[in-house]
Amino acid sequence: MAEAAESPDARARAGDLAEFEALMRQYERLVLVTALRLLGNLEDAKDVSQEVFLRLYRNLEKVEAASNYQAWLYRVTVNICYDIGRKRKPSVAMEDVPDPVSAAPDPQQSLAGSERQRVLQLSLRALSEKERAAVVLRDLEGLSTEEVARTLGSSEATVRSQISKARVKMRDFVERYFRRRV
């Protein structure tokens, strides 16, 4: 009887760099986009991404199973973003924020999409660290309230409250922003 093949996860834990690189490729977008949404700066997000994967490499044996990678990566990404936020003044480098409608053939549509993206980033900057993390993970990354609570180390009630307050703040920010533009 042939012995069962070792999983890519087990090979990465055993030090197989090719398997670890495959693991990084699988999750690199998740980490980079989450960090970009939390920090609003591509260079900072890249730094966070590097640090997250360095910590994953160092702690691979502590992440119990492949199903836990995503939760672990979200938690570490948020924590590193918090650390950076405490060390630096928040900056919004809007030219670094990817424009999801840049390929749109209609320039007016493209401009409107770019403006929406810019206002979203600015409204996220107006939130507290914890509110921003809750909104990014729940509304932009699509995690459940339970997953956000586990990631942030708080209760579901706290997460719901943070998201509710954050949405009100974001709505108020957007309304003020567009009133000034008229």
Distance between the termini: 75 Å
Please give the count of helices.
8
The CATH topology assignment of the largest domain is Rna Polymerase Sigma Factor, Chain: A
pLDDT below 50 for ≥5 consecutive residues: which ranges?
90-104
State the major sheet. none
Task: Assign a percent range to the helix content.
Answer: over 70%
User: CATH architecture of the largest domain, please?
Assistant: Orthogonal Bundle
In the CATH hierarchy, what is the superfamily of the largest domain? RNA polymerase sigma factor, region 2, helix turn helix motif
Q: What's the CATH class label of the largest domain? A: Mainly Alpha
Strand content: under 5%
Record field, number of beta strands: 0
Overall tally of domains: 2
**What's the Cα radius of gyration?**
19 Å
Shape: globular
| Average pLDDT number | 81
How does this model look, in words?
Helix content is 72%, strand content 0%. The chain has 8 helices and no strands. It has 2 domains: 1-98, Rna Polymerase Sigma Factor, Chain: A (Orthogonal Bundle); 101-182, Arc Repressor Mutant, subunit A, CATH 1.10.10.10. α7 packs across α8. It is mainly α. The radius of gyration is 19 Å and the shape is globular. Residues 90-104 have low confidence and may be disordered. It has helices at 8-13, 17-39, 42-59, 69-87, 107-125, 129-140, 145-152, 156-181.
